[in-house]
Specification:
Length: 288
């Protein structure tokens, strides 16, 4: 399996087809198609299902994604080593929900960058809770910041803090003194995260619906928009304290009752860590 074939294979995976892969790589579609056919012939197995104009990996193709990304990561590291004078090389890849990128995580990353300035850090967006294990297994990243329940049992987890959810209203909203009971919220319209998020489901369960609860102003699949909606005067929401407090005096933040707080962990697979990943784990364990 040549490096070029590996790059083309992963480009098709990431872009769901030959056309998108060719555009991303800056080459012609026939070049990508020919490389894929050659790779499938050499391996003796189909790597993709052709679905309409798109392509999705077969079971064999999915198993190849992780090793292929690791191969490219190793090649990139070798290239960096040639110009690093023997220092640590590679790249530190981390995925996280936007609300988790604060506090202890930023302190750990700052310490890593000071200790290993030649290693760049890529902090990407985790789109869905269900993707934690697959993102690491398929080589998209080495670390994910999440809650223990979404990390699963296969990955090593190191706790780095806590994520507390609070009730947030536009500044000056007339509400009872805190803590504000979720079972008896004031009649202020609320913006809620959709049911695709586990924690959002638990919070919604604690809130009355219908005639016994507050009116719903909006339900969003994009939880990062909730704070902007509150600041715009649409009503209240329940969200992460670390995010809510970035709005300063534009919003009022109240502790909820019952208190919703969850541990935050960094999850990783110790068996597949790169040298850069191992160095980051050493910093994590040394700081905690």
């Amino acid at each position: 399996m040549e490096i070029r074939q590996t790059e083309y294979f992963l480009a098709v995976v990431d872009n769901q087809g030959v056309s998108g892969a060719a555009t991303a790589l800056g080459i012609s579609e026939p070049t990508v198609s020919q490389a894929l056919r050659t790779l499938e012939r050499e391996l003796g197995i189909p790597l993709f299902h052709r679905v309409g104009r798109g392509m999705v990996p077969t079971a064999a193709g999915r198993r190849l994604i992780g090793p292929a990304r690791q191969l490219l990561r190793d090649v990139r590291m070798v290239g960096q080593l040639q110009g690093s004078g023997g220092g640590l090389a590679g790249r530190l890849d981390i995925l996280a929900f936007p609300a988790t990128v604060s506090g202890q995580l930023t302190d750990l990353l700052a310490e890593f960058c000071v200790a290993h300035p030649s290693v760049p850090v890529r902090l990407g967006l985790l789109d869905a809770e269900s993707e934690v294990d697959s993102m690491i297994a398929e080589g998209h990243c080495e670390f994910v910041v999440c809650t223990p329940r979404t990390a699963g049992d296969r990955l090593t987890q190191v706790e780095i803090g806590e994520q507390e959810y609070v009730v947030v209203y536009p500044a000056g909203t007339d509400v009872p003194a805190e803590p504000i009971p979720l079972s008896d919220l004031p009649p202020v319209p609320m913006t809620l995260a959709s049911a695709r998020y586990t924690i959002a489901n638990e919070i919604s369960t604690a809130m009355p619906r219908g005639s016994g609860g507050p009116p719903v102003a909006a339900i969003t699949d994009h939880p990062e928009t909730r704070l902007a909606m509150v600041r715009a005067g649409m009503g209240g929401t329940v969200m992460e304290r670390a995010v809510a407090e970035t709005a300063g005096d534009a919003v009022d933040v109240y502790t909820a009752s019952p208190r919703f707080a969850y541990p935050l962990v960094i999850a990783f697979d110790e068996a597949t860590l790169s040298p850069a990943g191992q160095a980051f784990v050493a910093i994590i364990r040394g700081a905690l």
